[in-house]
Every structure is written in structure tokens, then in C-alpha cells.
Design a protein that fits this description.
alpha/beta, single chain, FAD/NAD(P)-binding domain, 8 helices, three-stranded antiparallel β-sheet, 2 domains
């Protein structure tokens, strides 16, 4: 069905049940939505932005940075249907094993997961981006009838690949309109927990500040590293603990490295902590890094 604009109409799903509610319609949100609908699941996709890039939505990305600076944190992340896929080049450049390793000469290096845990999913991601199944090394040379350069073993190399069409809203336009329920101008303002540690509902708001609640079976956050942490840190379970902090990685008190504090969340629309009726603005939380672990982690990234 056509996309729903929450600035114009109320949520039309108060009596419906979705298998999955996905927050964020960027690369991850669209891929999960499309894949789940292919498996026969009923999916609702919520997006805080609108169709296309607009300044009045982008300013909600403003952050106060207290650590290593991230360039273009406002305009480099797109609040729009399609997320940053509406602006990126569609590059596929996988991490390498060294990116996951602890290196004494690289500050904050080392991941809490090995390369192998992630590498198995690259072919599936490339297929979704409509990128060929060739590897990033020998297959490319063979395709062009070339010999591999005689580099020393200490020198590694790889090719980069690009999606023929990087904008997922164009590639999967028919699926998004026909098989998913997509609602834009819908900011997630609250997570509603039960007494068993599960999220059973969400609260969303349009840009006029009109709030609505929606029951959920399975909630998937696909809002990026900064926004996902802001959402979790601004919500508490019935015992007052940060939602999703069972691992300790989201411990807002002990984060000490890369710092982000979102300045606003739909300006003048405060987040509400689920254990209190007191408004909790996005600026109340100094978001420090995407994960907190006793072991330092890498902040390198790929498209």
C-alpha cells in the first residue's frame, strides 16, 4: 500500500498485529523488512524522516561531541525514507581480519567478535545490493585476465565494489509499497516494557507532537549506532534499568571514549522514560560510544 504520512493521518494499525515492527528505514531496516516479508511475515516499518532529504528533519541529527570527532554527523546521516542509501555511493568494502584485532599501536582497537562471525554475511548483503558474487581479490584478476601483483606477503590488497543502484527505495520500491506497511514522519519516543524484560509496545510521535501507542510482537531497531543508543539510554525497564543493558555494554556511566550527545529528538518533543512520567530529552544522555566493553573496540567503519 502507499506510504503513510503520520503528519497527515493517525496510525491506521491500532487493531492490527504485526510480526515485526522495524524502526528506521535505511539500508538495514529495508533489508530486514524485505527479507522478512519474503518469508511471509507481516512487517511495519517506521521512519522519523520524510520522503527525500529535508533540513527540518536533518537538524534532529545534531549532536554534542566530547571525544574523537565524527565529521558531518548531521548531514552524513539521513533522516528520510531510505536513510543514507538515498545519498551514498553504494560501496561494498568489507572489513578485514586485522580490523578486528587488538593492536598495541592503535588506540581503542580490537572488537568483541571475530572477523569470521561477520564475514559469512557479506555474500548475502552483496546479493541484496545486487552486487556480483566474485571475491575481492583473485576473482577480479581472473575476470580481466590479469596476473596478481607480486607484492610482498606483508602487503595486502583488495578491490572495492559498487551497487548498480545504491538507493534502496528505488531498487525495492515495488516491495516497499506492496508488501510492507511504511509510516514516515514517525519518531519513536518511547519503548513500553512488560514485567518480563520484553518490549510489548512503542510510542511514536509526529512533528506536531501528537503521540500514539502501538503494540509490538518483535521490535527491531535499525536506526544506526548513535540513534539506537540514544533510544535505549532514554528508556528504562520496570526496574529502572537501561533497556538492553544486560551485557553492560550500554552502561552510560562508564562510557569514556568517543562521545555523542544528541541535541534534540524532534525539537520540543521530549523522550519519556518508561519508569516515570517525567519527560526525558535526548540531551539528558551523553552517548559515548556505540559499545562499551572492558576490551577496547575498533571504530573503523565501512559502507
Amino acid at each position: 500500500m502507499p506510504y503513510t504520512d503520520l503528519d497527515r493521518v493517525d496510525l491506521p494499525y491500532s487493531g492490527e498485529t504485526f510480526d515485526y515492527v522495524i524502526v528506521g528505514s535505511g539500508a538495514v531496516g529495508i533489508m530486514m523488512g524485505v527479507e522478512l516479508t519474503r518469508k511471509g511475515k507481516k512487517v511495519l516499518l517506521l521512519e522519523s524522516g520524510r520522503i527525500g532529504e529535508h533540513r527540518d528533519r536533518q537538524i534532529d541529527n545534531e549532536v554534542v561531541q566530547t571525544g574523537k570527532r565524527l565529521e558531518n554527523a548531521v548531514w552524513g546521516r539521513k533522516r528520510a525514507v531510505g536513510g543514507t542509501t538515498i545519498a551514498w555511493g553504494g560501496q561494498s568494502l568489507p572489513f578485514r581480519p586485522v580490523d578486528f584485532s587488538r593492536r598495541d599501536w592503535v588506540s581503542e582497537s580490537g572488537w568483541p567478535i571475530p572477523f569470521e562471525d561477520l564475514s559469512a554475511y557479506y555474500p548475502r548483503a552483496n546479493a541484496f545490493m545486487q552486487i556480483d558474487a566474485l571475491d575481492y581479490h583473485e576473482d577480479i584478476f581472473k575476470m580481466f585476465g590479469l596476473e596478481r601483483p607480486s607484492f610482498d606477503a606483508a602487503i595486502d590488497f583488495h578491490f572495492s565494489k559498487w551497487a548498480p543502484e545504491p538507493d534502496f527505495t528505488k531498487v525495492y520500491a515495488r516491495t516497499l509499497e506492496r508488501d510492507l506497511q511504511v509510516v514516515y514522519n514517525a519518531m519513536l519516543t518511547g519503548l513500553i516494557p512488560d514485567g518480563n524484560g520484553r518490549i510489548t509496545g512503542v510510542e511514536v510521535s509526529n512533528h506536531a507532537g501528537r503521540r500514539q501507542s502501538l503494540k509490538v510482537n518483535q521490535l527491531l531497531l535499525a536506526t544506526g549506532g548513535i540513534e539506537s543508543n540514544r533510544i535505549l539510554l532514554n528508556n528504562r525497564d520496570l526496574n529502572g534499568a537501561v533497556i538492553g543493558d544486560h551485557s553492560g555494554w550500554l552502561d552510560a556511566v562508564s562510557w569514556t571514549t568517543l562521545g555523542f550527545r544528541p541535541v534534540s529528538s524532534f525539537r520540543n518533543i521530549p523522550m519519556h522514560s518508561s519508569d516515570s512520567s517525567t519527560p526525558m530529552s535526548a540531551g539528558d544522555v551523553n552517548i559515548r560510544n556505540a559499545f562499551h566493553s572492558p576490551k577496547p573496540i575498533s571504530r573503523s567503519s565501512s559502507c
